[in-house]
Amino acid sequence: MPPTTSALNVSRFLREHIRTVPDWPSTGVQFRDITPLLQDPQVFRVLADAFVHRYMAPGLRPDVVAGLDARGFIIGAVVAYALNVGFVPIRKKGKLPFTTVEETYELEYGNASVEIHTDAVTRGQRVLLIDDLVATGGTMLAGIKLLERLGAEVTECAAIVDLPELGGSGKVRASGHSLFTLVDFEGH
Protein backbone atom coordinates (compact mmCIF):
# COMPACT_ATOMS: atom_id res chain seq x y z
CA MET A 1 0.00 0.00 0.00
CA PRO A 2 1.53 3.36 -0.96
CA PRO A 3 2.12 5.88 1.82
CA THR A 4 -0.54 8.53 2.29
CA THR A 5 0.15 12.22 1.82
CA SER A 6 -0.01 12.61 5.59
CA ALA A 7 2.60 9.85 6.07
CA LEU A 8 4.84 11.47 3.47
CA ASN A 9 4.51 14.82 5.25
CA VAL A 10 5.45 13.25 8.60
CA SER A 11 8.41 11.48 6.99
CA ARG A 12 9.61 14.71 5.35
CA PHE A 13 9.15 16.67 8.60
CA LEU A 14 11.13 14.13 10.63
CA ARG A 15 13.84 13.84 7.97
CA GLU A 16 14.41 17.60 8.19
CA HIS A 17 15.25 17.15 11.88
CA ILE A 18 17.73 14.29 11.51
CA ARG A 19 21.29 15.54 11.53
CA THR A 20 23.81 13.99 9.16
CA VAL A 21 27.31 13.87 10.59
CA PRO A 22 29.87 13.17 7.85
CA ASP A 23 32.84 10.88 8.49
CA TRP A 24 31.64 9.65 11.88
CA PRO A 25 32.56 7.28 13.46
CA SER A 26 34.94 6.69 10.54
CA THR A 27 35.80 8.22 7.19
CA GLY A 28 33.13 7.76 4.55
CA VAL A 29 30.28 7.11 6.99
CA GLN A 30 27.28 9.45 6.89
CA PHE A 31 25.98 9.08 10.47
CA ARG A 32 22.24 9.75 10.86
CA ASP A 33 21.87 11.41 14.25
CA ILE A 34 18.35 11.22 15.67
CA THR A 35 19.05 13.28 18.79
CA PRO A 36 17.60 16.48 17.24
CA LEU A 37 14.28 14.61 16.95
CA LEU A 38 14.28 14.23 20.72
CA GLN A 39 15.42 17.73 21.66
CA ASP A 40 12.44 19.64 20.25
CA PRO A 41 9.20 18.76 22.08
CA GLN A 42 7.02 19.28 18.99
CA VAL A 43 9.23 17.07 16.82
CA PHE A 44 9.49 14.42 19.54
CA ARG A 45 5.69 14.34 19.83
CA VAL A 46 5.25 13.96 16.05
CA LEU A 47 7.78 11.11 16.10
CA ALA A 48 6.14 9.30 19.01
CA ASP A 49 2.61 9.88 17.70
CA ALA A 50 3.51 8.42 14.30
CA PHE A 51 4.34 5.11 15.99
CA VAL A 52 1.57 5.25 18.60
CA HIS A 53 -1.17 5.91 16.04
CA ARG A 54 0.05 3.01 13.89
CA TYR A 55 0.14 0.55 16.77
CA MET A 56 -3.23 1.56 18.23
CA ALA A 57 -4.84 -0.29 15.30
CA PRO A 58 -6.31 -3.56 16.61
CA GLY A 59 -4.41 -5.75 14.11
CA LEU A 60 -1.06 -4.15 14.95
CA ARG A 61 -1.50 -3.50 18.69
CA PRO A 62 1.18 -5.37 20.64
CA ASP A 63 0.97 -6.91 24.09
CA VAL A 64 4.44 -5.56 24.84
CA VAL A 65 7.07 -3.34 23.21
CA ALA A 66 10.71 -4.48 23.14
CA GLY A 67 13.41 -1.87 22.57
CA LEU A 68 16.95 -2.48 21.36
CA ASP A 69 19.89 -1.02 23.30
CA ALA A 70 20.13 1.90 23.55
CA ARG A 71 18.21 4.37 21.38
CA GLY A 72 15.40 1.85 20.90
CA PHE A 73 14.74 2.30 24.62
CA ILE A 74 13.86 5.96 24.12
CA ILE A 75 11.14 5.60 21.52
CA GLY A 76 10.10 2.10 22.62
CA ALA A 77 9.38 3.16 26.20
CA VAL A 78 7.34 6.16 25.03
CA VAL A 79 5.30 4.00 22.64
CA ALA A 80 4.71 1.33 25.30
CA TYR A 81 3.57 3.97 27.79
CA ALA A 82 1.17 5.56 25.30
CA LEU A 83 -0.27 2.15 24.35
CA ASN A 84 -0.55 1.13 28.02
CA VAL A 85 1.54 -2.00 27.52
CA GLY A 86 4.77 -3.18 29.10
CA PHE A 87 8.28 -2.40 27.89
CA VAL A 88 11.13 -4.91 27.62
CA PRO A 89 14.78 -3.86 27.15
CA ILE A 90 17.07 -5.95 24.97
CA ARG A 91 20.51 -4.98 26.24
CA LYS A 92 24.12 -5.34 25.24
CA LYS A 93 25.77 -8.34 26.87
CA GLY A 94 26.51 -8.02 30.58
CA LYS A 95 24.03 -5.21 31.36
CA LEU A 96 21.06 -7.19 32.70
CA PRO A 97 21.15 -8.40 36.33
CA PHE A 98 18.85 -11.46 36.17
CA THR A 99 19.00 -14.76 34.23
CA THR A 100 19.32 -14.02 30.51
CA VAL A 101 19.43 -15.60 27.09
CA GLU A 102 21.97 -14.27 24.62
CA GLU A 103 22.23 -13.90 20.85
CA THR A 104 25.46 -13.08 19.04
CA TYR A 105 25.49 -11.32 15.68
CA GLU A 106 28.09 -10.10 13.23
CA LEU A 107 29.30 -6.54 12.97
CA GLU A 108 31.38 -5.11 10.16
CA TYR A 109 34.52 -5.94 12.18
CA GLY A 110 33.79 -8.65 14.71
CA ASN A 111 30.80 -9.79 16.75
CA ALA A 112 28.48 -8.37 19.39
CA SER A 113 25.86 -9.91 21.67
CA VAL A 114 22.53 -8.82 23.07
CA GLU A 115 20.58 -10.32 25.94
CA ILE A 116 17.08 -10.42 27.35
CA HIS A 117 15.80 -11.59 30.73
CA THR A 118 14.35 -15.09 30.55
CA ASP A 119 11.07 -13.83 32.07
CA ALA A 120 10.79 -10.70 29.89
CA VAL A 121 8.01 -12.06 27.68
CA THR A 122 5.63 -14.99 27.87
CA ARG A 123 4.81 -17.60 25.27
CA GLY A 124 2.39 -16.24 22.68
CA GLN A 125 2.78 -12.56 23.57
CA ARG A 126 2.58 -10.22 20.59
CA VAL A 127 5.71 -8.05 20.56
CA LEU A 128 6.61 -4.91 18.68
CA LEU A 129 10.42 -4.74 18.35
CA ILE A 130 11.71 -1.19 17.95
CA ASP A 131 15.04 0.59 17.39
CA ASP A 132 16.22 3.96 16.17
CA LEU A 133 17.49 2.71 12.80
CA VAL A 134 18.07 -0.32 10.65
CA ALA A 135 21.53 -0.47 9.09
CA THR A 136 22.95 -3.97 8.52
CA GLY A 137 20.06 -5.58 10.43
CA GLY A 138 22.21 -7.60 12.83
CA THR A 139 20.84 -6.14 16.04
CA MET A 140 17.22 -6.36 14.94
CA LEU A 141 17.58 -9.95 13.73
CA ALA A 142 19.26 -10.89 17.03
CA GLY A 143 16.37 -9.27 18.92
CA ILE A 144 13.85 -11.25 16.87
CA LYS A 145 15.68 -14.51 17.63
CA LEU A 146 15.75 -13.77 21.37
CA LEU A 147 12.04 -12.96 21.54
CA GLU A 148 11.08 -15.99 19.49
CA ARG A 149 13.34 -18.24 21.55
CA LEU A 150 11.26 -17.20 24.57
CA GLY A 151 8.05 -18.06 22.69
CA ALA A 152 6.87 -14.56 21.82
CA GLU A 153 5.49 -13.59 18.42
CA VAL A 154 7.24 -10.60 16.85
CA THR A 155 4.30 -8.99 15.08
CA GLU A 156 6.33 -6.18 13.54
CA CYS A 157 9.73 -4.54 13.68
CA ALA A 158 9.93 -0.76 13.60
CA ALA A 159 12.58 1.94 13.37
CA ILE A 160 12.75 5.65 12.85
CA VAL A 161 15.33 5.42 10.05
CA ASP A 162 15.99 2.86 7.33
CA LEU A 163 19.40 2.79 5.63
CA PRO A 164 18.43 0.33 2.85
CA GLU A 165 21.79 0.52 1.07
CA LEU A 166 23.31 -1.37 4.02
CA GLY A 167 20.93 -4.28 3.45
CA GLY A 168 19.41 -4.63 6.91
CA SER A 169 15.81 -3.88 6.05
CA GLY A 170 15.97 -6.44 3.26
CA LYS A 171 17.36 -9.06 5.66
CA VAL A 172 14.63 -8.37 8.24
CA ARG A 173 11.92 -8.71 5.59
CA ALA A 174 13.61 -11.82 4.12
CA SER A 175 13.40 -13.39 7.59
CA GLY A 176 9.61 -13.22 7.22
CA HIS A 177 9.06 -10.21 9.50
CA SER A 178 7.27 -7.01 8.69
CA LEU A 179 9.31 -3.81 9.06
CA PHE A 180 7.90 -0.30 9.42
CA THR A 181 10.15 2.76 9.21
CA LEU A 182 9.40 6.47 9.13
CA VAL A 183 12.37 7.88 7.21
CA ASP A 184 14.33 6.30 4.36
CA PHE A 185 17.85 7.49 3.55
CA GLU A 186 18.41 5.43 0.41
CA GLY A 187 20.95 6.97 -1.93
CA HIS A 188 21.79 9.86 0.38
From TrEMBL:
Q: Which reaction does it catalyse?
A: AMP + diphosphate = 5-phospho-alpha-D-ribose 1-diphosphate + adenine
Under the heading Pfam families, the entry gives: Pribosyltran
What Gene Ontology cellular-component terms does the record carry? cytoplasm
The biological process GO terms on file are: adenine salvage; AMP salvage; purine ribonucleoside salvage
Q: Which domain of life is it from?
A: Bacteria
Metabolic or biological pathway, per its Swiss-Prot or TrEMBL entry: Purine metabolism; AMP biosynthesis via salvage pathway; AMP from adenine: step 1/1
Tell me which positions the record assigns to the signal sequence: none
Query: Which cellular compartments is it found in?
Result: Cytoplasm
Q: What are the EC numbers?
A: 2.4.2.7
User: What's the top EC group for this one?
Assistant: transferase
Cytoplasm in keyword set: yes
Q: Which key words tag this protein in UniProt?
A: Cytoplasm, Glycosyltransferase, Purine salvage, Transferase
One GO MF term, please? AMP binding
Q: Which InterPro entries match?
A: Ade_phspho_trans (IPR005764), PRTase-like (IPR029057), PRTase_dom (IPR000836), UPRTase/APRTase (IPR050054)
Indicate the segments forming the Phosphoribosyltransferase domain, all copies.
Answer: 37-164
Record bears the keyword Glycosyltransferase:
yes
Q: What is the annotated quaternary arrangement, including any partners? A: Homodimer.
UniProt record similarity statement = Belongs to the purine/pyrimidine phosphoribosyltransferase family.
Per the entry, what this protein does is: Catalyzes a salvage reaction resulting in the formation of AMP, that is energically less costly than de novo synthesis.
Q: Which HAMAP family match?
A: Aden_phosphoribosyltr
Q: Matching NCBIfam families, A to Z? A: apt, PRK02304.1-3, PRK02304.1-5
The entry's protein name is: Adenine phosphoribosyltransferase
The organism is Corticibacter populi
Where is the organism placed in the taxonomic lineage, from the top? Bacteria, Pseudomonadati, Pseudomonadota, Betaproteobacteria, Burkholderiales
The gene is apt
